[in-house]
Amino acid sequence: MRRILPLLAAAALLPALAAQNLVLPDNHHLMERSDQLANAGDTTHWRATSGGRFQILYDASHFVNAGVNGPILITHLRFRGEDGEPNLGGQVYSGVTVEVGSTSLGTLSTTFATNRLAATTTMGTPATTNVTVAPSLGTCPNNDCIVIDLLAIGASFLFDPTSAQPNLIVDITMPTAPANAAPLYMTPIQDTTAHGAGIRGSAVSTATPAAATGTADTTPAVLGIGFAGNGGYATIVPARNEEFGAACGGNCAAFYQTFNQGQPFDLQAGLTLLPDNPTAPNFYTVIGGAPAVDLTQLNAAPNSVADEVLVTFPLSFAWAFPGGSTSTIKPSTNGHVWLDSVPTAALYQANKDNLLGVTTNYPARYMPFWTDLQCGKNTGGNALAGLHVKEDTTGGPGNSVVYVTWNDVGLFRHGAGATQPGHCSHTFQLVLHQASGMVEYRYGAMNTFASGLWTTSASMHYASIVGFTRGRIGTTPSLDPQSRDLSTEVPFDTAVEGSVGNVGITAVSTPIAGGPGYQGRLFAGQSVRWDVKNIPAGTVIGLLNLDVAATSPGFGLPGITAPGCKISTSLNPVGLQWELFVLPAANVTGTVPLTMPTPVPTAWLGVDIVVQAIGVDLFGGPNLVPWSSNAIRHTIGLN
260 Cβ partners below 8 Å, 6+ apart? Predict the structure, then answer.
C-alpha cells in the first residue's frame, strides 16, 4: 500500500507534465553572485578526467520559496557550466547511475551510505543511463549542458517539501571518465556561492566511484529542476539590466557602448567612423555598417599569440584623429589600439575610468572590442590565429591602408588552452584609411554573448566596450558621453571636446547592491532608485520618467528636443514624473525608489521597466527638452 499511494499521486500529476522549473539554490537564476564576480566553477561533481560519485542536498525552502506547497513529480535534473563560458561539449559519460530522494537530513555526511539510511532518507528508483554534455553557449546564466530526463530513464521521483522528509537528495555515480574521440576541455559546472539567505545545501564527492566516503563540499553544483505539479516557473527569467539609448547635454569627443556580462553582442554589421577633415579631424560621424573582415590582410604569422601584449607598429605616415596624430600605433591583444607610442599597458580591465583616463594617464584609443582576450587560445587548430598588424602600401603614396586583425582569438576567462581550440572564437578588424581618414570596425565570427573576466577588483566593470576615446586630455580626463546603443543609435556626430559631459543615469539598489556593470536589478525584495549626473547648469526642471515600453532607436521631436537628444521611453511614459528635480545640482541622488514585492507576481516576470531622465524648459528656451540621459532597461525577474 505504501508503494501504491505514491504511484497514484504521481499518476495524478501526469496531466500537468507541461512542466514547471526552478533552480537550486533559488538565488542563482542570473549568476553566481549579485556582484557578478568570477568563480572557478565546480570540477568535483561532473569530473573531466575521471569517474566519481557525488551526492547533493538542497533544503526544502528553495522549493517553498518558488511556490511549491505540496507533492510534485521531479522529471528532470539540469546542470549548467560557468556563466559566460562557451564550450563545444561532446563528452559522454557511460553507465551513469542516477537516484533522487528525499531526506530529513540538514547536511550531508562524508559517508555516502549514512546519507541514505532508511531512518532519514527515502530514495527513488535507481536508473542507469549515458550522459552527453551539450554545448554551452556562454550566456549569463549559461544554458544547461547536462540534462537528465528522469521520466525517460524511469527515475522520476515524487517529492514533497512540506513532508517529514522535506529536503532533496540527488545521488549520481559515474563509473568512468567521460569519453570523446577528441578529448575536449569541459567548462566547470557552476557552483553556488553564499548570498542572501545562503546556500542552504551541501554536497559530498569523490573521484573513486566505489569509495565509501567522499570530501565534504559546502558549495554544491547549481541544480535545475524540471517537475510536474504546483509552483515553480514555466520560464525562468533572470532579473537583468542593460544601458541603451543615447545621452546628450554635453560636448564629448568620445563615444562607446558597454556590454554587460552575457549581453548579446549585436554589432556584427560593423561601424564606420568618418572624419570631418581627413588631415585634421575635429569630430567623427559614426554610421552603422562596415565591410566584411578581410582575411587576405593577415601576415604569414601573427605578430602575437601571447596574453597581455602590445605590438609596436610604426606607420609610414602620420595618422590624424580628433585631438591629435601619431606615427606609431600600439595594438593590444585585448582588442584595442593605442594611438600613441608611449603606453605599456595591454589593459584588460574594460571600465569607464580606464576608458576616460580618470585614474591613469591613458591616451587616445580605438576600441573595436575591448575585453580580456587571449590571442593564443586557438593556435592548435589555426596556425594564423592571433593578432596581426599590417600596412598595405600597394595603393601608392597617400593611400596606405592599415589592418589590425584579431583572428580567431579566445577569452582569457575561458579555461581551454591552445591544444583544445574552437570553444571560444572572436574575429574582428580595425581598418585605417590614410587617404580619407576613415576608420572601420569590422566583425567576423564573434561569440554571441559578451563575457569578460570578473574578480574582486571594483575597477573591472564590463564584459566588453566598443568605441573611441581621447583618454586623458592634458591633465583632464575625457568627458563621459555615456554608453549608447551603437546597433541602433546611429548615425551621430561626436563633438569637439567641451567642458560638460552628457547626462547619465545610474540605478542604485538595496539591500543587494548588484554588480557595477548590472547596477540595481529588480527582483523580490529589491528597492531601486536612480541617480542622475552631469545635469547642465541653469536647469530649472528635471524629470525622471519610468515606462514599460522602450523606444530604440530613440526619437527626437523637431522644435521640442534639442539636436542629438533622444527620448527612449514611449511618448507617454506610464511613470511620467516618477521623480521631479527642481533647480537641480549637477549630480542628483534619487529619492523615489521602485520596490519589488515578495514574491514578485508571476505576471510581472519578464516585464521591462525603462527609466530615463530629461530636462524640461518651460521658460521660452529654444527646446522644450534641452537634454536627456541615456536609459536603463530593467527586466523584472528572479535573483
Answer: 240, 241, 242, 243, 450, 462, 463, 517, 518
Is the predicted pLDDT of residue 3 greater than 60, yes or no? no
| 4 SS3 class | helix
Sign of the four-CA dihedral 111, 40, 83, 260: positive
Q: Residue 619: which residues within 8 A CB-CB, separation 6 or more?
A: 540
Which CATH number is 498-639 given?
Answer: 2.70.50
Distance from C-alpha of 310 to C-alpha of 330, rounded to nearest angstrom: 6
3-class SS shares of the chain: helix, strand, coil, % to 5: 5, 40, 55
Question: pTM here?
Answer: 0.94
Please name every residue paired with 634 in a beta bridge, in sequence order, or none if there are none.
241, 609
Alpha-carbon torsion 357, 260, 488, 403, what sign?
positive
Torsion sign over Cα 512, 515, 520, 524: negative
Beta-carbon contacts of 182 under 8 Å, excluding residues fewer than 6 positions away, are none
Are 395 and 413 contacting, i.e. CB atoms less than 8 angstroms apart?
A: no
DSSP state of 238: B
pLDDT per position as a tens digit, 462-520: 889 999 999 999 999 999 999 999 999 999 999 999 999 999 999 999 988 776 677 88
Separation CA 507–CA 528 (nearest Å) = 7
pLDDT of residue 182: 67
- Which is nearest to 311 in space by CA: 284, 291, 294, 334? 334
Residue type, 240: R
Q: How many whole angstroms separate alpha carbon 49 and alpha carbon 596?
A: 45
DSSP annotation of 332 reads B
The C-alpha atoms of residue 75 and residue 324 are separated, in whole angstroms, by 63
- In angstroms, what CA-CA distances link 62 with 58, 122, 224, 373, 481? 7, 19, 11, 37, 43
Asked if 356 and 480 touch (Cβ cutoff 8 Å), the reply is yes
- Cβ contacts of 626 within 8 Å, gap of 6 or more: 249, 536, 539, 562, 565, 615, 617
Residue 5, pLDDT above cutoff 80: no
What is the strand order of the sheet 365-370 is part of? 255-259, 464-469, 365-370, 337-338, 324-331, 313-321
Please write down the long-range contacts of 122-127, taking CB distance under 8 Å and 24 or more positions apart: 122/165, 123/99, 123/169, 123/171, 124/99, 124/100, 124/155, 124/156, 124/157, 124/158, 125/99, 125/154, 125/155, 125/157, 126/97, 126/98, 126/99, 126/155, 127/97, 127/98, 127/99, 127/153, 127/154, 127/155
Q: Which residue has the cell 566593470?
A: 461
> Is the Cβ–Cβ distance between 406 and 389 less than 8 Å?
no
Q: How far is CA 41 from CA 80, 186, 381, 501, in A?
A: 10, 11, 26, 40
Domain ranges of the chain: 4-228, 253-497, 498-639
- Separation between Cα atoms, residue 49 and residue 633, nearest integer Å: 42
pLDDT digits (tens, 9 = 90+) for 564-591: 999 999 999 999 999 999 999 999 999 9
Cβ(223)–Cβ(619) under 8 Å? Answer: no
Three-state SS letters, 285-327: EEEECCCCCCHHHCCCCCCECCCCCECCEEEEEEEEECCEEEE
Contacts 24+ apart (CB under 8 A), 213-217: 213/110, 213/111, 213/112, 214/53, 214/54, 214/55, 214/110, 214/112, 215/44, 215/110, 216/108, 216/110, 217/44, 217/54
